Amino acid sequence: MDFSIRDASLDDLDSILKIEVSAFPHPWSRSQFLDEMALPYARLWVLTDDETDQIVAAYLCFRLQAEACSVLTVAVGNEYRGQGHAEKLLRKMIAWVVREEYPQILLEVRASNRAAQGLYEKIGFHKDATRKRFYSDGEDAFVYVLKTSDAPAELQ
Ligand SMILES: CC(C)(COP(=O)(O)OP(=O)(O)OC[C@H]1O[C@@H](n2cnc3c(N)ncnc32)[C@H](O)[C@@H]1OP(=O)(O)O)[C@@H](O)C(=O)NCCC(=O)NCCS
Fold first, then answer.
1. What's the pTM value of the predicted model, to 2 decimals?
2. What distance in Å separates the CA atoms of residue 32 and residue 30, rounded to the nearest whole number?
3. Residue 46 Cα to ligand 1 middle (Å)
4. How far is the CA of 112 from the centre of ligand 1 (A)?
5. Distances (CA, A) of 32 to 13, 14, 15, 45
6. I need a labelling partner for 61 at 20 to 30 A (CA). Which of 2, 34, 70, 143 fits?
């Protein structure tokens, strides 16, 4: 199956929420996604199948603010993991951020989330800091940074 990336629409929200609740211990609510979709400086992208455009395999939400692009959330449905979908979403975001001339991309990731850390490191992010007890359950966050000047050459 081939997949492409587009802006999320309201019709995608049920599928996004289904992935969200299975992916995170403290999932975002529908209204949190709606809030992000309404912000002019936020983007919510989905990766859907080319044939029907109805199967949402993954999504990515990020904000573009003066000093940086911040990744808020990225998740892939269980049955679609390990196929490069998260990497595809992030690479498209990086290329866009480079074009828009934002200096860096920032994100936080749970200290226990090795899969996500592996993903970010593969794409060129580096661990910049630890935020102690950042999450409401007391887990630390690692802050990952990618300076756009250090983005992979093919995305510059
Ligand atoms: C983390 C997550 C988004 C990865 O999505 P994915 O589409 O399966 O990842 P990809 O197939 O694009 O993998 C790209 C790279 O990420 C790394 N990676 C992905 N899954 C990994 C795992 N389980 N363990 C270690 N590294 C992993 C690898 O470097 C991989 O490259 P490779 O296939 O050449 O080894 C997915 O597991 C997920 O949705 N997890 C739950 C939500 C979550 O934790 N989101 C991140 C919040 S910060």
1. 0.97
2. 5
3. 16
4. 13
5. 11, 13, 15, 15
6. 2
> Hey, is 27 helix, strand or coil?
coil
Per-residue pLDDT of the chain (156 residues; tens, 9 = 90+): 999 999 999 999 999 999 999 999 999 999 999 999 999 999 999 999 999 999 999 999 999 988 899 999 999 999 999 999 999 999 999 999 999 999 999 999 999 999 999 999 999 999 999 999 999 999 999 999 999 998 888 888
CA-24 nearest atom, ligand 1: 42
Which residue is closest in CA terms to ligand 1's atom 30?
119
Domain 3-155 indexed as CATH 3.40.630.30: yes
d(CA 62, CA 41): 9
What residue owns the CA closest to ligand 1's atom 13?
84
Q: Which amino acid is located at 56 in the chain?
A: V
d(CA 109, CA 107): 7
